[in-house]
Amino acid sequence: MQIDFAGKNVVVTGGSRGIGEAISRAFVEVNANVICTSTQEAKKQRSNDGIIYLPLNLSEEKSLAKFFDSVDSEFNKVDILINNAGINKINRIDEISIKDWKAIIDVNLSGPFKMIHHFSKNMISRKYGKIVNIASIFGSITKEKRAAYTSSKAGLIGLTKTCAVDLAPFNILVNSVSPGFINTELTRTILSPAGIEELVSLVPMKRLGEVEEIARLVLFLSSDLNTFITGQNITIDGGFVNI
Q: How far is residue 33 CA from its own chain's centroid?
């Protein structure tokens, strides 16, 4: 069976760069209608690549309400929801500010909850839907200065499991994907070439993952090829968490 999303509407949060951009473009390539969110304060636009961009700040209720109104009025359904948007700030537990903690939880955990809470209603009425939350290996393991980020991603994995149980009777499948170290612009900005080389040496496959590899997994979980996988957190990290 060939994957084809013709006639399907897909919402991808944080879809303007990195993993989110790769996911958005992958859906376009298989004929989906893609609504991509960004924090940029640009006017609503339809790009030449077939993606509709809408501004959204997951930590602001007014922004969320405006986004929901725009999607509900322009589209009669959302078939697939990809909660990809996320933020991080590295700081020791005694040094992180309450403001930063709240911002990370708001975007990484409360944001996906609000998106699922809203869009699942229509999915329930149609008895169809796929939801994929982009978590992280740091939702299962951690390292120093990751208290807020790990808490948010561990919570997102927990939210995935509970939503899967709640929504399974309505033929809505909910899963999370936990990427490891991925070759993104952000990774290359944060780490020096020597830092990336050191990181690669720790990965059993001896390389960083590519954004397209994450996108392909998300595509499968969101497709009609997936009919029975739900409530799962799938790690895609080249074997890193096994060492």
A: 17
Range of the structural domain that residue 211 is part of: 9-237
Burial of 142 (0-12, 13-18, 19+ CB in 10 A): middle
Look at the chain and report how many structural domains it folds into: 1
User: 2 in a domain, yes or no?
Assistant: no
CA distance 154 to 190: 23
Give the residue among 221, 99, 82, 87 at the shortest CA–CA distance from 146.
Answer: 87
Per-residue pLDDT of the chain (243 residues; tens, 9 = 90+): 679 999 999 999 999 899 999 999 999 999 999 999 987 654 445 555 789 999 999 999 999 999 999 999 999 899 999 999 999 999 999 999 999 999 999 999 999 999 999 999 999 999 999 999 999 999 999 999 999 999 999 999 999 999 999 999 999 999 999 999 999 988 888 788 999 999 999 999 999 999 999 999 999 999 999 999 999 999 999 999 998
Is residue 108 within 8 Å of residue 156, measured between CB atoms?
Answer: yes
Look at residue 243 and tell me if it is in a domain.
Answer: no
CATH value at residue 140: 3.40.50.720
Q: Which helix (H) or strand (E) holds 189?
A: helix 185-190
Q: Is residue 207 part of a domain?
A: yes
Asked if residue 3 is part of any domain, the answer here is: no
What is the 3-state composition of the chain as percent helix, strand, coil, each rounded to the nearest 5? 45, 20, 35
Which are the catalytic amino acids?
149
